[in-house]
Amino acid sequence: MFLLRNLQVLLQPDPFLNELTSMYERNREKGSVWVTLKRSCLRPKGKRKLEIDASEYKCLVRATDGQKTISTVLSAKDHVRFQASYATVLKAHMDALKKRERKDKKKVAEADKQKASSKAT
């Protein structure tokens, strides 16, 4: 039996965010999207043993929904802009989470006093 493995597509940061947005849209009703970030020097395994300057490290970002895998590589100077854009994408697609009601401390204290006074009488 022949199984096809997920092909990983390496994109530039902006197309990666666009594809991530469409991945979230496809999985809005049912499904999951996993996003992984890791530090990488992007060297073959044999050459990793050489000493690496901290400025050479890149951030490898992968996203998958189980059917499609996409990835991008960020340099240190690109990460701030990418983080801001990524946060915007996350905020736009996390609308299915339940919002908690915030209780005003004064109202809670007054309600407790009223309960205490009604129990005393």
Structural account:
This protein is α+β, with helices and mostly antiparallel strands. The chain has one domain (8-97): Signal recognition particle alu RNA binding heterodimer, srp9/1 (2-Layer Sandwich), CATH 3.30.720.10. Helix 1 (13-26) packs parallel to helix 2. It has three helices and four strands. The model has no long low-confidence stretch (mean pLDDT 81). 37% of the residues lie in helices and 20% in strands. Strands 1-4-3-2 form a four-stranded mixed beta sheet, with helices on one face.
Primary descriptors:
alpha+beta; 121 residues; Signal recognition particle alu RNA binding heterodimer, srp9/1; elongated; 4-stranded mixed β-sheet
Name of the CATH superfamily: Signal recognition particle alu RNA binding heterodimer, srp9/1
Shape call: elongated
Q: Please give the number of β-strands.
A: 4
Secondary-structure-derived class:
alpha+beta
Q: Strand order within the widest sheet?
A: 1-4-3-2
Could you estimate the helical fraction of the residues in percent?
Answer: 25-40%
Mean pLDDT: 81
Q: And the CATH topology? A: Signal recognition particle alu RNA binding heterodimer, srp9/1
Tally the structural domains.
1
Quaternary structure type? single chain
